[in-house]
Amino acid sequence: MSDRPNHPYQRILLKLSGEALMGPEGFGIHMPTLVALAEAVGVVNSKGIQLAIVIGGGNIFRGLKGAAAGMDRATADYMGMLATMMNGMAIQDALEKVDVDTRLMTAITMRSVAESYIRGRALRHLEKGRVVIFGAGTGNPYFTTDTTAALRAAEIHAEVVLKGTKVDGIYDKDPVVHADAKRFETLSYMNVLERDLRVMDGTAITLCRENKLPILVFNMTDPTNIIRAAMGEEIGTLVHG
Length: 241
What we know:
Layout: E1 11-16, H1 31-46, E2 50-55, H2 63-68, H3 73-97, E3 102-106, E4 115-116, H4 119-127, E5 131-135, H5 145-155, E6 160-165, E7 170-171, E8 183-184, E9 186-188, H6 189-195, H7 202-210, E10 215-219, H8 225-230, E11 237-240
Parallel strand pairs: 1-2, 1-6, 2-5, 3-4, 3-5, 6-10, 9-11
Antiparallel strand pairs: 7-8, 10-11
């Protein structure tokens, strides 16, 4: 018998990479993909499930890549945070177009664009049925959006982190390169750290472990998988205690 929950979660944190918005393109935002994502999130919202989103910025600018090219790491990371805000604005716009009440919150003050992140305010938005998008990472360089997702999920008392990727779970080796790669159905936090499986960075995994936050890793290529994951269906790989 599976040890996964068989009922919808009440509050979830959805972590998306910036690449999830690219669709078949190699850069930027693919509008049909963005619309499909917004429609899937709208379905989850319509079921009364409280949903927060953390989005990366790798489709526009990746801080680590800029640092590797010689840019100051802190400067590169701040640029990456701004890229997450651009993606957050795009998601907010797409959600509003499908009649989903949405709030974009930022860890870096930019009053003309988004609300500054305040935990209590974020909780009130969620309780009122609004989708909350957390942009600009933690507001600090040297932290990834994976760590942001784990941190915000703990702060809002989410029951699970849904991590959307390009593959259908966590494998023992790269399934794109190795045809015999094995997909795990469940893993412990320590398994992920000890095997260096890199589904999220070590800080994020440790934060989730310390706060007993399960992580469901699933394929975002089909945005309707967001609905399946949010409804507790057995897809992807579940990382838990």
